[in-house]
Specification:
This protein has 94 residues and is of the alpha/beta class. It contains two helices and four strands.
Amino acid sequence: CRYGGEEFGIILPNTVGSEAIEVADRYRRAIEQEVWPSVPGMVITASFGVADVFVLPGTPTTEDFISTADAALYRAKVNGRNRVEAAVAMHLPG
């Protein structure tokens, strides 16, 4: 779903962090390899922030999770763009 102007959120149920990183990197490569016949030579890139979450009582909120993913996205942009950065696993209330 669209989360901000150029930001989208993807929820991958029953997926651990390393699998989510692989999925994000597949998306990143697919976007980068897209051919735009109307604009020869155009390359579009994407940066991804991945946050892993599992539900446990008495832990951070959904907003904390989104903020963590956003921080990972920011790191991806700062570290050169067109990359995937992961956040530390979080625990959300059950």
